[in-house]
């Protein structure tokens, strides 16, 4: 049986459920989930193999990136258009309870690819309220088709995958059979700490912290030992990150440590150090 390949971009606003859908499809956590804007800062790819078909999903940054012009968002826009360029199909993920037609029209007009609209979070909206929205979209936009899903509760995802498979084309696979992401476990553990930082720190501070792995080793007893540096560009951030009597950094460490243990299925010992970037 010849190998086939399909590349798909997951597109949508922040909190539409792109990362949740990706993790459900892959069956493991390959992209962190957080309600803060621009959780996905790097171009993460999730890979699933179904028989002779390899499907690569690109978890793109939230469409909110086009509202900002700073250096961080410039790189996110580069990541976004790279994913679109490489993809065969776009899955446009919509939060069924939060659809804005004007924004949707603006976004869809920029995407010159086959587009499948995916109404996520259908568990939160009554079906009779969703049907008029679907009819209006069908009338006004050139959409390949529609799917109703709940990524959180794994509803409708298999039907979506069955539909997508028919667009695969004969090609050699780009990733190994047992590979589920273009990122390794060290990246995932760094992302867990970034998720903790996004959870416990506010405003722009989380986006001014660079997480660098310093030590990563599986011990003889099966435990995992990790040391990470939280690099800041302004020394005044250190006091905020540490918190009163070190309570804030403790919460960040424990949150990340627990998430790493759950994802990698092993007891984890995480050590964090806050340091200032010498270049600043």
What are the main properties of this structure?
alpha/beta, GMP Synthetase, Chain A, domain 3, 280 residues, 3-stranded mixed β-sheet, 10 strands, Rossmann fold
CATH superfamily of the largest domain: P-loop containing nucleotide triphosphate hydrolases
Major sheet summary line: 7 strands, mixed
Strand pairing plus helix content: what structural class?
alpha/beta
Count of β-strands: 10
Strand content: 25-35%
Specify the helix fraction band.
25-40%
Q: Please trace the helix and strand order, writing H or E for each element.
A: EHEEHEHEHEHEHEEHHE
Mean residue pLDDT: 89
CATH topology name of the largest domain: Rossmann fold
Roughly how many Å apart are the termini?
56 Å
CATH level 1 class label of the largest domain: Alpha Beta
User: What multimeric state do the chains show?
Assistant: single chain
């Amino acid at each position: 049986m010849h190998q086939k390949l399909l590349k798909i971009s997951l597109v949508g606003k922040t909190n539409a459920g792109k990362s949740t859908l990706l993790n459900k499809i892959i069956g493991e956590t390959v992209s962190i989930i957080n309600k803060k804007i621009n959780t996905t800062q790097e171009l993460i790819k999730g890979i699933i193999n179904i028989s002779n078909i390899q499907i690569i999903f690109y978890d793109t940054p939230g469409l909110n990136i086009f509202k900002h012009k700073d250096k961080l968002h410039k790189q996110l826009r580069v990541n976004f258009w790279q994913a679109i360029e490489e993809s065969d199909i776009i899955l446009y993920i919509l939060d069924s309870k939060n659809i804005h037609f004007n924004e949707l029209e603006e976004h869809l007009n920029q995407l010159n690819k086959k587009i499948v609209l995916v109404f996520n979070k259908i568990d939160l909206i009554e079906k009779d309220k969703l049907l008029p929205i679907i009819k209006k979209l069908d009338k006004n936009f050139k959409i390949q088709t529609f799917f109703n899903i709940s990524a959180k509760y794994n509803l409708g995802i298999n039907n979506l995958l069955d539909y997508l498979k028919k667009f695969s084309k004969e090609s050699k696979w780009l990733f190994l059979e047992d590979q589920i992401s273009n990122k390794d476990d060290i990246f995932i553990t760094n992302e867990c700490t970034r998720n903790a930082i996004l959870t416990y720190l506010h405003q722009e501070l989380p986006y001014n912290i660079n997480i660098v792995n310093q030590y990563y080793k599986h011990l003889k007893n099966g435990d995992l030992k990790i040391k990470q540096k939280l690099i800041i560009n302004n020394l005044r951030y250190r006091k905020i990150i540490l918190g009163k009597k070190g309570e804030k950094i403790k919460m960040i460490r424990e949150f990340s440590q627990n998430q790493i243990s759950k994802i990698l299925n092993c007891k984890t010992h995480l050590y964090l150090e806050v340091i200032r970037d010498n270049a600043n």
